[in-house]
Give the backbone structure.
Amino acid sequence: MDDTTQATTAFLRQRGFDRAYSAAIILGTGLGSLADELTDAVSLSYADIPHFPLSRVSGHAGRLIAGTLAGSQVLLFQGRSHYYETGDAGAMRIPVALVAALGIPVLVLTNAAGSVHPDIRPGSLVAIRDHLNLSGTNPLLGDQTERRFVPLTDAYEPRLRELMQAAARRSGLVLPQGVYAWMSGPSFETPAEIRMVRILGGDLVGMSTVPEVILARYHGLRVAAVSVVTNLAAGIEGTVPSHQETKDVAMEAADRFKRLLRAFMLELQDE
């Protein structure tokens, strides 16, 4: 553990975040209301945590919250810092390292995403099974250790995907699986780029998540990820995406999303 992570971890342990967590969850745009489900919660603004990256995107509250969800201790990141905000693909380096430092075995990543298929409609929940890194960068650039050569086969752990499917069945939800394509942002993709993603095998497109997956696997964490589809991608059925639409549809899907995550924590308990 480097000095920065050690300092951040020590700071949080002294402020009520020293718990036996079952999972950490990073919440994407418009999905922060999962925090309302927690009991026995403590929280801090990212701005008050040493070395923590700030999120300056609307729809991201920028708070770290510890509490109980469906009988398990969880650590919630209510928002994230994006590559497009900082120019640093490793913008979430410290938060992901913190998860490992606190001994949390599972990291669940969530995001708002565009669908490149007309049959995956806005409001759908999709479990990510693989990704395409189309950003041209990587959060491990500059790392000089042998650990930088991280294998990403089954980065989205098959067993956790099975548990997520079981959670969907428990909740009465349909949960298709798909491939998520990471684009750098902040501009939305062009219709030609969306056609490219579809040709390459992508099902979803977004501006986050993949850097955190790479960092999580670097630290040996188990990873699961879920997208809330907030729009059809550019050019599909004449769509012109907007950030406001992303926030609005994510909030509309929030109840289904929360049901899925509560059920997933129950499945994780039974594993």
Summary: Residues 254-270 form the longest helix (17 residues). The beta strands are 23-27, 39-45, 63-69, 72-78, 106-115, 125-133, 177-182, 204-206, 222-232. The chain is about 30% helix and 25% strand.
